[in-house]
Amino acid sequence: MVTMIGQETREVERKITAILQILSESATPLGSRTISKTLEQRGITLGERAVRYHLKIMDEKGLTRPVGHKDGRTITPSGLEELRNALVTDKIGFINSKIERLAYQTNIGLRSGTGRTPVDISLFDRKDFTHAVKVMSGIIQSGLCSSSMVALAGEGSKLGEITVPTGKVGFATICSVAVNGCLLKSGIPVHARFGGLLQFKSGQPYRFVDIIEFSGSTIDPSDIFIAGKMTDILKTVASGNGKVLAHYYEIPLLSAGKADELLERLRHSGLLGFAILSRPGEMLCEIPHNQDKVGLVTLSGLNPAAGAVESGIPVTNYSMSCLLEVSRLRPFTELL
After folding, report:
1. What's the pLDDT at 9?
2. Model confidence pLDDT, tens digit, residues 45-94
3. Can you list the domains of the chain with their CATH numbers?
4. What residue spans of the chain are helical by DSSP H?
């Protein structure tokens, strides 16, 4: 009986942690219906009534706070602290699971220009956005981003699942997980290995100098490197020498030819900027791989936002945030 109670308590904790995770990823209050639907997408079945029950418990513990007359909730500082500490063993590999989920949900029609793609979302203060566009322009035009296609949203509008708060501008870039999704839909399995800082020399990718394995992380490596002020993307734009955010994947050697063709189609569509495949038997950016694999390096969609942070502009980032309709994306040059 004691074992059963322990298991039930742990299951409740998992559900509360999942709800806290969803609330932490939202810039606006969420109601029980939205939370229930998002939980279902993540493989957790919890009806609206059950979500309201858990939210009541979380309110009493000070983890969440009711907002307005409806059942909207926001996460509190205590909730964020609980999220950082709760069920650490369950959170190991969280980023890998998130990558796999977004890749599976990716549905890009290259010929029709329709479907949905994973995006990274950054929120800027409205007063800073004109300056941010100037800073990000050099980064995107230098090709140091996953794609030059972006989406904007003003306060009160939505970018995927995120509602832009008052006084903010929402800026979405294509997440490199989009490449995973397209490869997966083409029958090519992808192993996401790590995110890191890719060093450029004389304008060319040289080697990874810092890496964080996706399988052992509960936080997107790009967020860690940005928060640690470890990038020098503006220096890379100016001199060709510096460190930018990048991701490293592996695919089967036998699928390399098919993958190369798909990457070229993505480049032609404008949905992909920088991506390189290793040659059989050769290291890629000084990273070794298994004999029957080839390496794939893509740049992070958060590089423009990281450059804005380097220039002193406050930014709130939601990496690997959600899926966005491809039809909402526009060339960055239209902002200039």
Report:
1. 64
2. 889 999 999 999 899 999 999 987 677 899 999 998 888 776 555 555 67
3. 2-91 (1.10.10.10), 92-336 (3.30.70.1360)
4. 2-24, 32-41, 48-60, 77-85, 88-91, 94-105, 129-141, 177-185, 221-227, 233-239, 256-269, 303-310
Tokens of 35: 């939370």
CA angle 243, 200, 334 (to 5 degrees): 80
This prediction has a pTM of 0.78
Compute the distance between CA of residue 215 and CA of residue 331 in angstroms, rounded to an integer: 33
Q: Among candidates 200, 227, 202, 190, which has minimal Cα distance to 212?
A: 227
Residue 17: which residues within 8 A CB-CB, separation 6 or more?
82, 83, 86, 87, 90, 91
* DSSP letters for 308-319: HHHTT--EEEEE
Question: How many angstroms separate the CA atoms of 17 and 90, rounded?
Answer: 10
What single-letter DSSP state applies at residue 111? T
CA–CA distance, 148 with 110 (Å, rounded to integer): 16
Going by C-beta distance under 8 Å and a sequence separation of 6 or more, which residues neighbour residue 24? 75, 79, 80, 83
Question: What is the secondary structure of 25-74 as a DSSP string?
Answer: T-SS-B-HHHHHHHHHHTT----HHHHHHHHHHHHHTTSEEEETTTTEEE
114-148 pLDDT, tens digit per residue, is 899 999 999 999 999 999 999 999 999 999 999 99
Contact 258, 186 (CB under 8 A): yes
Q: What is the pLDDT of residue 8?
A: 53
pLDDT < 70 positions in the chain: 1-10, 69, 86-93
CA–CA distances in Å: residue 268 to residues 77, 110, 176, 192: 45, 9, 16, 24
Are 203 and 237 within 8 A, CB to CB?
A: no
Bridging pattern class, strands 191-201 and 242-252: antiparallel
Note the pLDDT of residue 152: 96
